TrEMBL record:
GO terms for molecular function: cyclic-guanylate-specific phosphodiesterase activity. This is EAL domain, c-di-GMP-specific phosphodiesterase class I (Or its enzymatically inactive variant). InterPro entries: Cyclic-di-GMP_PDE-like, EAL_dom, EAL_sf. Residues 1-245 form the EAL domain. It holds the Pfam family EAL. Gene3D superfamilies: EAL domain (3.20.20.450).
Length: 245
């Protein structure tokens, strides 16, 4: 379930699903996972996903996305009470038919779409707001939750956050890493959390690797933490062992 093989132009690629645990800072408990694609060539050489998606054909990208979404649904059937975020490739954004197929797949698996969060990345800044809004509103109509990834590293505005009403904002690793030694980064972080991100939005800080950075985040007991200080990405077998199912 967590490994698949794709053939592209006569070459085989192995796609593995891995899971980033997200800790709730106040309770120190895992309350969600982010599913990731790890792509390897025939020589077991890891290929960065974003680079791979830039060169893969649309149907292959869709096959990878289908595989990850099926993995998410299988996980949610095995484990109640968690949410899983799923990054939809930019090449499939604005594809209403594909979005509808994801919703239909939830029904097939008897999974509530509200347990799945669709991650939005750089596509948001590259696409006219009117097009973004139609797609994201349809996703919300289906019941999916919406997550803006990598916030703080791109050109997003406070107005766009209010317009799209994201359920979760994930702050970029480039912003979080080293805040203990960078007053400028720390000031930016405080401004984003206290003034820019709309009240009631879930906040996740990614790339937390240092105890000194974690200590400065502790003032925000409501946020989530993702990073090597807690765990590296887990294989499905490791996740099952951790969760006990």
């Amino acid at each position: 379930m967590n490994i698949t093989t794709l053939e592209i132009a006569g070459k085989k690629l192995s796609v593995n699903a891995e899971f980033n645990p997200v800790m709730h800072l106040s309770g120190k408990n895992i309350f969600r996972y982010e599913v990731l694609a790890k792509i390897y060539n025939a020589k077991d050489r890891w290929l960065p996903v974003e680079q791979s998606f830039d060169i893969l054909e649309r149907e292959t990208i869709k096959a990878v996305s289908d595989f990850l979404f099926e993995t998410v649904c299988e996980l949610l059937k095995m484990k109640e009470g968690i949410t899983v975020s799923f990054k939809l490739p930019a090449q499939l954004m604005n594809d209403m038919a594909y979005l509808a197929s994801l919703y239909q797949r939830c029904g097939h698996h008897h999974i509530a779409p509200q347990r799945i969060e669709i991650e939005i990345g750089k596509w948001l800044t590259d696409t006219p707001h009117r097009d973004c809004q139609a797609f994201l509103e349809q996703a919300r109509t289906y019941g999916f939750m919406l997550l803006l990834d990598n916030f703080g590293s791109l050109d997003e505005s406070a107005d766009s956050l209010r317009l799209f009403r994201f359920d979760t904002i994930k702050l970029a690793r480039t912003l979080i890493y080293g805040i203990a030694t960078s007053p400028a980064k720390l000031s930016t972080l405080h401004n984003l959390i206290d003034k820019v991100i709309p009240p009631g939005t879930h906040v996740i800080c990614e790339g937390v690797e240092r105890s000194s950075d974690l200590a400065l985040l502790s003032r925000y007991s409501h946020i989530g933490i993702e990073g090597y200080i807690f765990s590296r990405p887990l294989t499905f077998s490791q996740l099952r062992l951790l969760e006990g199912f």
